[in-house]
Specification:
It is a single chain. The chain is an all-alpha fold. Helix 9 runs antiparallel to helix 10. The longest helix has 27 residues. It is globular and about 80 Å long. Belongs to the importin beta family. Importin beta-2 subfamily. One of its GO terms (cellular component) is cytoplasm. Its main location: cytoplasm. This is Transportin-1.
Length: about 475
């Protein structure tokens, strides 16, 4: 469904949408289900209008269709509602109670296939409204039916996959609100990982006697553990302390299947943020594996390994020094590769910046090899904590090796100007570097140099830093 057709439709939508909403009540099931789908295509427009005009009536009718007597209509309505949730995000907060009542009621009504779509609608709701879901009233509605399903399903049942994915979103959204449920959920995830690893080992030793395991069990369990670590933060510490998750993670990180490694590195990064004292003793063994996985052939594996290295650097501080050599060359190579996907470039730049922040003496000597792609890949991301730590790293490295940035200084200026509101001490770092460079080359040379700046860049640097 192309954007240009959408533009042509816009003038007719104020009349068309109410008509389509009426079609949701049509006596023919086929009309009701196709109306669900058609309306979902216009969710973006609906959400851009005042909520009482279209969003509220559409949501009200879609929720009724989720409880339709016809299975095909249930399915279409549930999928359409998930699309609407993604577009509406926090616009749905005022209606949460009403939405949850419907979705929970559907639990008792739905048969097997549609239950899977219902899990998706609940997970998407949690992703869309985030911490707004963390109210005892909502938790008491939502959690009992989810936990009931969780208890009904056996460890070997593939219906666990969508439920685990759904719970991962819910745990991340509820944060501390998920605490009462975390213990059994955590234990079962660890068990699923352990069982899958054991089965894989037996299969590898005697393939004629054992079946190959379905590793998806392990992948979704690792992802849910990530959701718990992200949602519970420091509260996950006691669960980690009482389990062998670090040993299991060591095995998962070396699995032959890329998706298993991808989820392992994501969990490693989340555990590093949540409870580093449990991760630290394993760093000696983990770092060579992380370095080995900085292979852009497997984009997502490489991306998560890169991110985890950055998080570990921030926790290790100067103690990261013995490990810089294991990863730095690969990171510099990735940031200089043509056609590297945008997210991988950004993550690589952030991790190089973080490594340089904690170990400037080790990273600064190769500054000239990465400064240009580093600046161009981070100029487009919004101000945030990760960008903050990366830019602090670059400033410290420029302090150690100012010559490394001279040839590409215009790119550094451009990257600095991309900040909307840096913290005061970071702004001071920028100020000192810009003025240091200007004083070094002299007024006349600086004038010539800044003539190359696009007008907007010149304006911003002059306004924010007085150069």
């Amino acid at each position: 469904f192309c954007i240009c057709c959408m533009q042509g439709m816009v003038p007719y939508l104020p009349e068309l949408i109410p008509h389509l909403i009426q079609c949701l009540c049509d006596k023919k099931a086929l009309v009701r289900s196709i109306a669900c789908w058609t309306l979902s295509r216009y969710a973006h427009w609906v959400v851009s209008q005042p909520p009482d005009s279209y969003l509220k009536p559409l949501m009200t009718e879609l929720l009724k269709r989720i409880l339709d007597g016809n299975k095909r209509v249930q399915e279409a309505a549930c999928s359409a509602f998930a699309t609407l949730e993604e577009e509406a995000c926090t616009e749905l907060v005022p209606y949460l109670s009403f939405i949850l009542d419907t979705l929970v009621f559907a639990f008792g009504k739905y048969q097997h296939k549609n239950l899977l779509i219902l899990y998706d609608a609940i997970g998407t709701l949690a992703d869309s409204v985030g911490h707004h879901l963390n109210q005892s009233e909502y938790i008491q509605k939502l959690m009992p039916p989810l936990i009931q399903k969780w208890n009904e399903l056996k460890d070997e049942d593939k219906d666990l996959f969508p439920l685990l994915e759904c719970l991962s979103s819910v745990a991340t959204a509820l944060q501390s609100g998920f605490l009462p449920y975390c213990e059994p959920v955590y234990q079962r995830c660890v068990t699923l990982v352990q069982k899958t690893l054991a089965q894989a080992m037996m299969y590898n030793q005697q393939p004629d006697q054992y079946e190959a395991p379905d590793k998806d069990f392990m992948i979704v369990a690792l992802d849910l553990l990530s959701g718990l670590a992200e949602g519970l933060g420091g509260h996950v510490e006691q669960l980690v302390a009482r389990s062998n998750i670090m040993t299991l993670l060591f095995q998962c990180m070396q699995d032959t299947m890329p998706e298993v490694r991808q989820s392992s590195f994501a969990l490693l990064g989340d555990l590093t943020k949540a409870c580093f004292p449990h991760v630290k003793p394993c760093i000696v063994e983990f770092m060579p594996i992380l370095g080995h996985n900085l292979n852009p052939e497997f984009i997502s594996v490489c991306n998560n390994a890169t991110w985890a290295i950055g998080e570990i650097s921030m926790q290790m501080g100067a103690e990261m020094q013995p490990y810089v050599g294991l990863v730095l060359n690969n990171l510099v190579e990735i940031i200089n590769r043509p056609n590297t996907p945008k997210t991988l470039l950004e993550n690589t730049a952030i991790t190089i910046g973080r490594l340089g922040y904690v170990c400037p003496q080790e990273v600064a000597p190769v500054l000239q090899q990465f400064i240009r792609p580093w600046c161009t890949s981070l100029r487009n991301i919004r101000d945030n904590e990760e960008k903050d730590s990366a830019f602090r790293g670059i400033c410290v490295m420029i302090g150690v090796n100012p010559g490394g940035v001279v040839q590409d200084f215009i790119f550094f200026c451009d990257a600095v100007a991309s900040w909307v509101s840096p913290k005061d001490d970071l702004r001071d770092m920028f100020y000192k570097i810009l003025h240091g460079f200007k004083d070094q080359v002299g007024e006349e040379n600086w004038q010539q140099f800044s003539e190359q700046f696009p007008p907007l860049l010149k304006e911003r640097l002059s306004a924010c830093y007085g150069v």
